[in-house]
Design a protein that fits this description.
It is a single chain. With 210 residues, this protein is of the alpha/beta class. The chain has seven helices and seven strands. It has a seven-stranded mixed beta sheet, with helices on both faces. β1, α3 and β2 form a beta-alpha-beta unit. The longest helix has 15 residues. The termini are far apart. The protein binds S-adenosyl-L-homocysteine, 3,4-dihydroxybenzoic acid (DHB) and magnesium ion. 3,4-dihydroxybenzoic acid (DHB) binds next to loops.
Length: 210
């Protein structure tokens, strides 16, 4: 879209052809992720939930030639498509794709940051299994530098997240996440509601305090 080059179109087509679900971020949201990465001069980005790598492509563009994106994906079929998309875009060297449950990869990543072996993350994008979102936020917070940005996808879900009667585990996961942010003095956040190619939804942008 908007002359952003073909790698994004290729990635979506390859994802569709491989039978992946059509749940990547929209082009507008992808571009917003890229701009957020640029705005906070992100060099090191963490993504939870790769799918076919569409959002990863945007984030990688946002971090520039010196930046790196670590992205976590549980499904080998999704990861294979993502790998092909990264290779085709010529950016494989800047992406660390780890296949497995995010909950299994995150402690090791956090250890690397705590030990000073790896720098803290400048930006994290959480977009995987929604019931686990509070846990992913907890890990992201531990690995974020002061001033880092944490983005959480799908926080509106056609308004269902505002429905106190909902018993949907995904909705409950997001509601718990919002409650956690409310109580967390290190986080300030706003939910951005979106209407567009993928219906009525939204993403939350949080900034980590010092
Ligand atoms: N960020 C992607 C979309 C991600 S869809 C984009 O916008 O292009 C959510 C992804 O999270 C799916 O690929 C799913 O397989 C993955 N996922 C689900 N549970 C997971 C888990 N426990 N650990 C890691 N990834 C998981
Ligand atoms: C779903 C997951 C997503 O991350 C998304 O952006 C849209 C839909 C889903 O699981 O239905
Ligand atoms: Mg999503």
């Amino acid at each position: 879209m908007l002359g952003e080059g073909d790698q994004f179109d290729w990635a979506l087509r390859a994802s569709r052809d491989a039978g992946l679900p059509s749940i990547a971020v929209t082009p507008a949201q992808g571009k917003a992720l890229m701009l957020l990465a640029k705005a906070c001069r992100a060099r090191r980005v963490l993504e939870v939930g790769t799918l076919g790598g569409y959002s990863t492509l945007w984030l990688t563009r946002g971090v520039g030639a010196e930046g790196r994106v670590t992205t976590l994906e549980v499904d080998e079929k999704h990861a294979k498509v993502a790998r092909q998309n990264f290779s085709r875009a010529g950016i494989s060297a800047r992406i660390d794709l780890r296949v497995g449950r995010a909950a299994d990869a995150l402690p090791g990543l956090a250890q690397g940051v705590a030990a000073g072996i790896e720098p803290a993350f400048d930006l994290t994008f959480i977009d995987a299994d929604k019931p686990s979102t509070p846990d992913y936020l907890d890990w992201a917070l531990r690995m974020s530098r002061p001033g880092a940005v944490i983005v959480i996808d799908n926080v509106v879900r056609n308004g269902e997240v505002a429905n106190e009667q909902s018993t949907d585990p995904s909705v409950l996961g997001i509601r718990r996440t919002v409650e956690m942010i409310r109580k967390e003095p290190r986080l300030e956040a706003a939910a951005i509601q979106t209407v567009g190619a993928k219906g009525y939804d939204g993403f939350l942008v949080a900034v980590v305090g010092g």
